[in-house]
Amino acid sequence: MRICVIGAGYVGLVSAACFAEMGNRVICVERDPLRVARLARGEVPIYEPGLEPMLKAHLASGQLSFTQYLAEGIALAEVVFIAVGTPSGEDGSADLSHVLAVADDLGDSLEQACIVVDKSTVPVGTGQRVAERINRRLAQRGRRFRIVVASNPEFLKEGSAVDDFMRPDRVIIGCDEAVSAEVLRQLYAPFLRNHERLLCMGLRAAEFSKYAANAFLATKISFVNEMAGLCARLDVDIEEVRRGIGSDKRIGTHFIYAGCGYGGSCFPKDVRALIRTAEQEGIEPGILRAVEARNALQKTLLFQALREHFNGHLQGRVVALWGLAFKPGTDDLREAPSLVLLDALLAAGATVQACDPVATAGVAARYAQAVASGQLRLSESPYSVVDGADTLVLVTEWKQFRQPDFARIRGLMRMPVLFDGRNIYDAKQLAALGFLYRGIGRPALGRCMVSAA
Ligand SMILES: NC(=O)c1ccc[n+]([C@@H]2O[C@H](COP(=O)([O-])OP(=O)(O)OC[C@H]3O[C@@H](n4cnc5c(N)ncnc54)[C@H](O)[C@@H]3O)[C@@H](O)[C@H]2O)c1
């Protein structure tokens, strides 16, 4: 099929490359000319495993190309995907300005009938608004054809986006018109050869499904984090409890890990948007508010624990921080827990030596002043950042942090103190190695006196 994808961000770029991989002819429209130029040279502007070889292969084969110009992208398209951002607006609702601007541009530019598919996460009713805007403009221009708008919410996860797109758990197509739904079913058929998990439903139900899915996952995380808070008081290890509850099939093992909070480009903004929708509909979103409040609190726990450990005095302390991206496998820093911790540590006068395999450039740009003054030092080497540190804090559980040489680390650190923001380490083993270990919702283990700063 001939496909146009509008927006070359995490979702648009991965979708475009994966559709090309299946033999479709894809043109990706991106409004940022610098991004277009980089992509056309085969440079991937985001970190996403497996994406670069795919991009290079399909640029070379001619199956995939990039343009800044919408008219060029849609000229021959049978299916047009909208994959632009829907960030939080000031009141927490989804800011639809990018999506609606694309709708207006499509209405002004389309010269043939096609299916327009909303892949961006949008509130219920947006597909209908997009269709109305496109078709009103087509009518004003005297065009006789009309556009059908479908919803195809995206469930890929950053860090495994290519894999998720190529082998999706499910594909949801929301479309109130049968012929267009069938075209989309055919487009997705090669991705679903091993298991038929295509779910066709109404446009509004598809739009809502995405919010409900993200809100539910965020709820699981915040629930476990609240249980972890209780565990900390009751001298219970949340890790044992996690195994205890996860073995129940009705609960399951996924998304029940206690930690220093969720971040990223989806959960925080989608929970906020759903809260706003509920308020507009006169429904009290008590659960969603609690999920959000617990997560905000969770993001502050590491700093609180550090402050307590150093008796309220962080000035002059050297804190090593492992992991900056909001989760492993991505360079995305949007709403990352690391940023809340960094802000607090820098404000308290600590020196931070932070390491991340791919996200240091984004942090350097955001904290240019602290980097220039030397208060924030960034590195891709986990060992260089622990050198001379008073404590090590694990924030993002990248694979390279899972089994480090702790004996070497103990030798490099000023004080062998470890705050494990993701509960990935064996507390007993670390205590035996001479570390003071503190996790989230776990009893502290080991001993370490606080030395003078
Ligand atoms: N990032 C994820 O993991 C993820 C997963 C599922 C769903 N989503 C949803 O998908 C949507 C896109 O998310 P993202 O993370 O890819 O966003 P992003 O910010 O990474 O990318 C959006 C891209 O669209 C471009 N753009 C904006 N307006 C444009 C226009 N008029 N014409 C051409 N390009 C335009 C921007 O320049 C940017 O490159 C959001 O609604 C998000 O909630 C994201």
Account of the protein in words:
With 453 residues, this protein is an alpha/beta fold. The chain has 3 domains: 2-201, NAD(P)-binding Rossmann-like Domain (Rossmann fold), CATH 3.40.50; 211-297, N-(1-d-carboxylethyl)-l-norvaline Dehydrogenase, domain 2 (Orthogonal Bundle), CATH 1.10.1040.10; 299-438, Rossmann fold (3-Layer(aba) Sandwich). The chain has 19 helices and 14 strands. It has helices at residues 10-21, 33-40, 51-61, 70-74, 97-109, 126-140, 161-166, 178-188, 203-234, 238-246, 267-280, 286-298, 301-309, 337-347, 360-366, 368-373, 382-386, 406-412, 427-432, and strands at residues 2-6, 25-29, 64-67, 79-82, 115-118, 148-151, 171-174, 198-201, 318-322, 351-355, 376-379, 391-394, 417-420, 436-438. The strands form 3 sheets. The protein has a 6-stranded parallel beta sheet, sandwiched between helices. Strands 11-10-9-12-13-14 form a 6-stranded parallel beta sheet. α5 (97-109) links the parallel β4 and β5 (115-118). α1 crosses α3 (51-61), α5 runs parallel beside α6 (126-140) and α11 (267-280) packs antiparallel against α12 (286-298). The radius of gyration is 24 Å and the shape is globular. The N and C termini lie far apart (64 Å). Residues 6-12, 29-32, 35, 83-86, 98, 101-102, 120-121, 154, 156, 158, 265-266 line the site of nicotinamide-adenine-dinucleotide.
